Amino acid sequence: MNISDGPSAAGAAPLRADDITMAYDKRVIGEHLSVDIPDGVGFTVILGPNASGKSTLLRSLSRLLKPSAGTVYLDGKDIHAMRAKEVAARLGLLPQSAIAPAGISVFDLVRRGRYPHQSILARWSEEDERSVRRALNQTAMTELADRPIDELSGGQRQRAWVAMALAQESPILLLDEPTTFLDVSHQVSLMDLFADLNRNSRRTIVAVLHDINHAARYAGHLIVMSGGSVVAEGSPEDVLTSGLLAEVFNVDATIIEDPVNGGPLVVTRHRGRAVVTGTENRKVTP
């Protein structure tokens, strides 16, 4: 497998990891990782099998996990030398399995996204209100704004957390499996929203995804991980090959042209049938 030299100079890297080692206590997840999150080439998707280090890399980039070696830079500064509120004003994170305080309403959860814009003496502003209402609308959660989070389905809760991340309005948004628990319609709606935010609002979006074809359709830049290492990165057209999918994901796959956008579409072979990755029991070719 060819390992790329990293993203080209097509865009600057507002967020990057320089030779980092990721570890929990003494358990090393990955060593000597260097990753640039480019700006201006579409949003970035991190792909890989389970336990490949995807979420750990995202935690390291977000300042939640301090590398045991190496440095993460945000806008050219060591992210761990920056104040928490300074980081929060520039970078938002939607983690996996987020936990909300018991009994909190959707609206009150989403308004917590405005924390980086508050000061001790500042009152809730019209701008704060607009940001929260806009985020609720973008995630189709307006009608559920007054409902307690505890009463919602898994998919509705996930959309509430996404709304909180959107209300933060940070220039960089990190998303760990943002489409978890969502039905297909809401998956597509959110992915379209993230693409629009990246394209029209110039926000840098980084998402950990499991759906390879969502990654192929929406990403401008892919980072593929395996065994705690970055094994390939670049455009979906360059990265998604039958050889890489066999080596990293252990699947027999063919790459065809996506009839919607002309990009790569992954078709895996399973029990004698060809199946579009991300679908279930759908026969494509004999």
From TrEMBL:
UniProt-listed PROSITE patterns: ABC_TRANSPORTER_1, ABC_TRANSPORTER_2
GO cellular component assignments: plasma membrane
Name under which the protein is recorded: Iron complex transport system ATP-binding protein
Chief site of localization: membrane
Cross-referenced Pfam families: ABC_tran
Occurrences of domain ABC transporter (ranges): 15-252
Biological process annotations from GO: iron ion transport
A GO MF label: ATP binding
Superkingdom: Bacteria
Subcellular location: Cell membrane
SUPFAM superfamilies with a match to the protein in the record: P-loop containing nucleoside triphosphate hydrolases
